[in-house]
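tool_log.txt
---
The assistant was asked to compare two proteins side by side. It first ran the structure predictor on the initial sequence, then on the second. Raw inputs and outputs are pasted verbatim so the downstream comparison step can read them without reformatting.
(1)
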Amino acid sequence: MTVVSLVHLGCARNLIDSELILARMAEEGCRVAGSVEQADVAVLNTCSFIGPAREESEQAIRALLAKKRRGELSGVVVAGCLVQRFQHLLEERFPEVDLFAEISDYKGLASAVRDLGRGLAVPRYLAAGGLREASRDGARLLSTPGSYAYLRISHGCDHTCSFCAIPGIRGPHRSKTIASLTDEARELIGAGVRELVLVAEDSTAWGRDLGTELPELIEALAELDGEHVLRVMYAYPNRFPWELTTLLREHPRVVPYLDIPVQHIATPVLRAMRRAGSGDQVRRLLDRLREEVPGITLRTTLLVGFPGETDADAAELVDFIGEYGLGRLGAFTFSSEEGTPAFGLSDPVPAEVMQSRHTAVLQARDQALAASQAAWIGREVEVLIDEVHASRSVGRTAMDAPEVDPLVILEAEAASVGERVRARVVAVDEEFNLICSRSS
């Protein structure tokens, strides 16, 4: 029997692909090991969004090949976004890799991995044969805790942001149908999942190619039988479906939380990025969301150091974080990506200036987050438990998405994964996590 281990890199959308790969390999009779050290064959699911992600993927390839040379692995397989983007060029750069696989339904990958572990001949390269259909995903081996799982609602993106390579990797936007998504959701809810985290390249575009809009899907998923809640991630800010705010405000199963990547606030930078709208439109969007959904938690993503960004643009961005109290955000520095409109643009921001601006953004974020978290001391929160350890339980509030936002730590408290408990906040730690005791 082929013993295989999967090494995952990248975002939540990529994690779903990793879970699909694991399930297909199990269906082919492979035994899935918990670590590379226990495996015969290692499968690396790569990321290729920006330079640092690509470098991480290539470093991981080299590390796995080193294990193969030492006889610790019999095979190394590389799959996912890096392969989809650079295709056969990777064969030339990494001739010791046994198999490359583009993004697909992964059935062919699984059978090839099985044969590779048995010492049989396998193809060197598996092409996807076209874009993946927007149909329901097959069975997945969930790698998340039993409390939450990701649900991908669409594939691809129609936007032409000048810095982004994703449309070239994942293709144009294709919505999965309500029927396929409710089927997937029922399966996850039936397995005990208590929070469905909806992800896509552009969540707010869901349904437009089907003649509908995102709120119809959210309501259908929220009305399914079970004890689940829904959280929406990756909501593109333009053409926002405003009927969604009614569900965010009123439906008990729709978490009043929205991840809405705005990328910047300075209008000249937004236009150079080919983001629709202006800084004032971004502000009006956030103002309206807070007006229509009192108490909503907003998360965003910012891109620092785009070519032509001035000191004034960077200062406006820092001021914007403080003005809107954006403590939940991710920030990355510009990476000139081959195949994107921004590749090789003139007027680049020097690396040391870019890093300084990135640091200033993170400092403003941390200041906002420290203030908002400290305001919860002495108050009660509801916590969804994700992990249980000997001396503590770890979970999240409705304000916090998995993997990217702060945690709640219940010291010396017994709880079960997937349980919702009431807790009183007693402190905030240095990583802005809420330290709590269970309410009586």
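(2)
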Amino acid sequence: MPTHSSIDSAANHIRIVLVGTQHPGNIGSAARALKTMGLSRLVLVAPERYPDIEAHALAAGADDVLAAAPVLATLAEAVADCRLVLGCTARSRRVALEEHLPRAAASLVTAQAGGGAEVALVFGRERTGLTNDELQLCHAAVHIPANPEYSSLNLAAAVQVLAYELRLAALAALPAAASTADGDLPASHAQMESFFAQLAETLDAIDFHKGRAPESAMRKLRRLFLRAQPDAREVRILRGVLADAQRMARLAGERGP
């Protein structure tokens, strides 16, 4: 059986990120949802109205969760040190992401967090959800299979569904025999973004796109590498390969035709 300490240890590595929340009451209700399920890490990205008395009123005793919640300007900043980022969203054809149901997502999150990885579950705006650019920062999507004839799920209710599934997964998980070594953890979000920036530069340097728009190829490559979840050492190897490719491209350019 998992102990309270092992459950708490995993929870300490899980953050719930609310992006562009429009109604402060949803922030308070989300804080309450987290605390009831043993979670405490709430991160707010560019909320429209916060701090606000309505948030504290609906937190119903989870004011400590609100007090500890950082308010950041961008999602990239909120997940920079994360090894796994899941975007909670309705099904969308805008950005092709692998989709998980809440229970499968919770098992994945708990396994990663139990090994010491920082993990984020990201929720978008009440009316419009996450933007394409924000979805691009996610490794995969989580879809709550609500009634298709009435799928209007309140933001705080969606947070409660995922928080509940995380609690079940934590209670069911066996404690790890030993912490995963940091070198075996998936690369952080910041490390992956630096790799993607170098990859884009390298593809330009070797004229990979041949005049075609680079966005489509980069979207596919991002999905491929995010799905593979390379660890920090593997990313360093990949970046070494890119550095050599860039060096050879420079030499070829210096030699001329």
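---
observation on (2): Strands lie at 14-19, 42-45, 71-72, 84-88, 99-100, 119-123, 140-142. The longest strand covers residues 14-19.
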